[in-house]
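Fold this: LacI family transcriptional regulator
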Amino acid sequence: MTQSSPPPGRIRNIAELARLAGVSAGTVSRALAGKTLVNKDTRERIQALAREHGFRPNQMARRLRVQETRVIGVVVPLGHEQRQHLSDPFFMAILGHLADALTENGYDIMLSRVIPDADDWLERIVDSGMLDGVLLIGQSNQYDAIEQVAKRYRPMVVWGSNRPGAAQCTVGVDNRLGGRLAGECLIARGCRNLAFLGEIDAIELNERFLGLCDAASAAGLPQPKPLHVHLASDVMAEEIAAHVAAFNGTIDGIAAGSDLIAMNTVRALADRGIVVPGDIAVTGFDDLPLAEQIIPRLTTISQHIAEGARAMVGALFERIAGEDAPSVVMRPELIRRDTA
């Protein structure tokens, strides 16, 4: 019995195209993939029919068949700060570099802002079957959950702090050294009473605070005062303004945990008529593009975001290929500008 031809118009699947071309579905699949196993004339005829009838093969289905999705999960865990937004300038900066590197290599991105609701939040992501690998932006307060998954799931790279003997592959600067560089910069300006503004529940910011303490201790100065500031933009400015109002001349140097905190601090000081850096010097941490564009220009610690993003993607591709890419610890750099 002769099979009926598909109705005129758009072809919906490979089986319909195969009936129209008078060949097997396997031949159509190979022809559309450009395989030389199908002779040139047949291959070109099938491809022409596909174009004529508006047929495009389901790439996701093909990828799943070969256990390759060509999709990378970019995950931002926010266990320490549930109100922080992806519009945060740091997230936008590193996301841009990661997206460039991934798409240039033929990968799509699945972006997730995750509020950890259980110990297995990361396991659910890596076991979803939807991803070839995962890039985590930050460790938040989820180090143990990340470490547990890293022991069995290899194609994962984390932007964050490296710890000796860790299973997770990390890329990032030496945050403690960065905090020390900020402290040494402030002390060299003559600052003697230091404060740290940031959320030290987060691993990376806590290490920056400890580095500031190292600098103060080496100079024989009192321990810096940690002042809690949420990273969520909707409350940050208000909290910083409250801290600044309580200084009463007791603080002359501020190391902020991020550039965004530093920028809001400079604004709060200006609102009270406090001169930066004449009365109080301020350093940031990130070296975002905005740091050089605001007035006064921000003295900060560079995390080498672009270089780090490229290193993350390179390490992930190595791990997808079965290689054991090591962690990368970059050296932070003091960028001297106007605020300290």
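Residues 46 and 280 are 73 Å apart (CA to CA). The longest strand covers residues 71-77.
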